[in-house]
């Protein structure tokens, strides 16, 4: 059977990304997949100790790859692509929460990350903005997760504690760690072809 | 011109393995919607039993493999059951432990939530076991019309995953050897874990420039269009699965 199969490389926002940026986003999504494997025993231990509330403490770590990609690349659409790739990778790795959860979580994270950086017109990349983005990415997905996994029946006080812990985790484990990791990698010279390095040079 | 031979015989298998990834994805999302809609244990238990059968006879999973997967999710499901049954006490109490109450309705609800988690997990495992990631990537471009440069990122991440995993494992073992003993206390464990995290991300980023350079030298992204060696067609079975999934979900929504 002979068939012509032509498929577009994309337009608009996707054309703005260079090959190296796409590779970076893919690699960070893969690194997140590896991190998920290593976090699995910790996640299981926390789950055994305090169920979903205890696992909330490390929620931020699962979002770090998208924010780190955004911090390094600094182009609109970065979160959409990175979290999109990450969702597929996690789906094929067999997440405990199911494929639907992987896609729903990624969709929540990408929308909020894009909105936060758009609100600052892609010009502010300091610790406060990253912490804001890390914390802001949590609540929408928490609402969906609460509906999916029955947290809604827990009672308002327990629900708010769980949400508070998750937001704190988003701020510290995602926002702060992104800044820390991004700056360390930038200083190492590995990111000299990315916006994060030129941003650092401009600030110096 | 991008003319080539498309060999559909590359896709082999029986049962669910012979159906395209998109049709199965529609079925998976229908099952997920239904599982999230129900909050009674009986329909979710029936769904779970159906999924166990589908995993064994549709996706071709062996019983021991299926058992291992179910044990994995039980580690997450059991604490969820205990916490939900204690945190959602409604109706008549059947037992009390200090301020904590166990009620019939609360236990029923906890059972439903736990079964839901099992259903969501098992339906995903069935999908993974019966789907070739390469076919999924092809479908994203050919059927969902996503830009191929983005979709190639998915393919690349899946390719590099085992490599980065083995690299991370070696780095972790090397760090443990240098340390001379197992880490003690929270502080040492955190330091060790921080080093592992940095090694994983650094290992991934270290490859970026080299990989991108190789891709560009081979002309990646030079043309606005691309072709695929493997074609994925939505056959009669695929369309039937989609129609049945949507129809059954609509009918069972009011159960």
Please bin the fraction of helical residues of chain B. Answer: 55-70%
Largest sheet of chain B, described in full?
A: 2 strands, antiparallel
Strand content of chain B: 5-15%
How far apart the termini of chain B lie comes to 54 Å
What would the average pLDDT of chain B be, to the nearest integer? 85
* Secondary structure category of chain A: mainly alpha
Q: Largest interface, counted with CB-CB under 8 A?
A: A-B, 71 and 87 residues
SSE-based structural type of chain B: mainly alpha
Sheet-strand content of chain A, in percent, reads: under 5%
Protein name (chain B): HMP/thiamine ABC transporter permease ThiX
Subcellular location (chain B): Membrane
Organism (chain B): Paenibacillus motobuensis
InterPro entries (chain B): ABC/ECF_trnsptr_transmembrane
Task: Report on the architecture of this protein.
The complex is a heterodimer of chains A (204) and B (255). With 204 residues, chain A is mainly α. Chain A contains eight helices and two strands. Chain A has helices at residues 19-55, 64-73, 78-93, 99-119, 127-136, 138-148, 156-187, 195-203; strands at 2-4, 7-8. In chain A, helix 2 (64-73) crosses helix 7 (156-187), helix 4 packs antiparallel against helix 6 (138-148) and helix 5 runs antiparallel to helix 7 (156-187). The longest helix of chain A has 37 residues, at 19-55. Chain B has two domains: 20-131, no CATH class; 133-231, no CATH class. Chain B has a two-stranded antiparallel sheet. Chain B is built from nine helices and four strands, in the order βαααββαααααβα.
């Amino acid at each position: 059977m002979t068939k012509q199969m032509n498929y577009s490389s994309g337009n608009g926002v996707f054309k703005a990304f260079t090959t190296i940026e796409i590779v970076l986003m893919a690699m960070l999504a893969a690194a997140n997949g590896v991190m998920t494997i290593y976090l699995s025993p910790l996640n299981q231990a926390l789950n055994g100790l305090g169920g979903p509330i205890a696992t909330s403490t490390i929620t931020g770590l699962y979002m770090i790859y998208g924010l780190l990609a955004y911090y390094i690349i600094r182009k609109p659409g970065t979160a959409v692509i990175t979290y999109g790739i990450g969702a597929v990778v996690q789906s094929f790795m067999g997440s405990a929460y199911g494929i639907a959860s992987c896609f729903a979580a990624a969709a929540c994270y990408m929308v909020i990350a894009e909105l936060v950086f758009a609100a600052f017109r892609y010009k502010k990349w300091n610790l406060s903005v990253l912490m804001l983005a890390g914390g802001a990415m949590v609540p929408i997905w928490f609402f969906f997760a609460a509906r999916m996994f029955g947290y809604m029946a827990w009672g308002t006080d327990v629900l708010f504690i769980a949400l508070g812990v998750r937001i704190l985790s988003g701020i510290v484990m995602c926002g702060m760690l992104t800044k820390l990791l991004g700056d360390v990698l930038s200083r190492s010279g590995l990111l000299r072809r990315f916006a994060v390095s030129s941003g650092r040079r401009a600030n110096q | 011109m991008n003319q080539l031979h498309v060999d559909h015989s590359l896709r082999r298998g029986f049962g669910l393995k012979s159906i395209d990834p998109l049709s199965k994805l529609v079925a998976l999302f229908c099952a997920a919607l239904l599982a999230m809609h129900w909050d009674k244990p009986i329909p979710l238990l029936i769904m779970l039993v159906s999924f166990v059968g589908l995993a064994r006879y549709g996706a071709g999973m062996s019983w021991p493999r299926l058992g291992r997967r179910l044990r994995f999710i039980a580690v997450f499901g059991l604490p969820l059951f205990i916490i939900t049954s204690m945190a959602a006490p409604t109706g008549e109490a059947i037992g009390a432990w200090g301020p904590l109450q166990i009620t019939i309705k609360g236990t029923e609800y906890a059972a439903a939530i736990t079964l839901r988690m099992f259903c969501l997990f098992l339906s995903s495992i069935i999908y993974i076991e019966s789907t070739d990631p390469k076919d999924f990537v092809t479908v994203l471009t050919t059927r969902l019309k996503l830009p191929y440069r983005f979709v190639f990122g998915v393919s690349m991440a899946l390719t590099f995953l085992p490599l980065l995993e083995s690299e991370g494992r070696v780095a972790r073992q090397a760090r443990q050897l240098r340390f001379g003993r197992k880490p003690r206390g929270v502080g040492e464990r955190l330091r060790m874990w921080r080093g592992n995290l940095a090694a994983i991300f650094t290992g991934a980023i270290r490859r970026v420039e080299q990989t991108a350079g190789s891709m560009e030298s081979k002309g990646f992204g030079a043309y606005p269009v691309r072709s695929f060696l493997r074609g994925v067609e939505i056959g009669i079975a695929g369309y039937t699965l989609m129609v049945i999934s949507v129809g059954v979900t609509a009918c069972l929504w009011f159960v």
